[in-house]
């Protein structure tokens, strides 16, 4: 699974769980882009921290 697929899956899960408010979004496509960008950064940060050994399983 690619990073983009993970980000999209998490975004859809957030929508399904109603943790994102679609009604307040001006444009759902832009909301998805913004949310996936944040998720991507968090995944990169986690990967960096995990691979450097700062945290372990």
Walkthrough of the structure:
With 57 residues, the chain is mainly α. The chain has a domain at 1-7 and 26-56. Helix content is 67%, strand content 0%. It contains two helices and no strands. It is elongated, with a radius of gyration of 13 Å. 2% of the residues are buried. The mean pLDDT is 87.
Q: Helix count?
A: 2
What is the rounded distance between the termini? 20 Å
What best-fitting shape do the alpha-carbon axes yield?
elongated
Structural class: mainly alpha
The helix content, as a percent range, equals 55-70%
Low-confidence stretches: none
Mean of the pLDDT scores? 87
Number of strands: 0
DSSP strand content? under 5%
User: What's the Cα radius of gyration?
Assistant: 13 Å
Order of helices and strands: HH
Largest sheet composition: none
Compact description:
With 57 residues, the protein is an all-alpha fold.
Q: Key terms for this structure?
A:
single chain; 57 residues; mainly alpha; 67% helix; elongated
What's the helix and strand layout?
Elements: H1 3-16, H2 28-51
Helix pairs in contact: 1-2
């Amino acid at each position: 699974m690619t990073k983009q697929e993970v980000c999209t899956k998490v975004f859809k899960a957030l929508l399904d769980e109603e943790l994102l408010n679609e009604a307040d979004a001006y444009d759902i496509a832009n909301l998805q882009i913004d949310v996936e960008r944040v998720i991507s950064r968090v995944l990169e940060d986690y990967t960096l921290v995990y691979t450097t050994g700062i945290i372990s399983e």
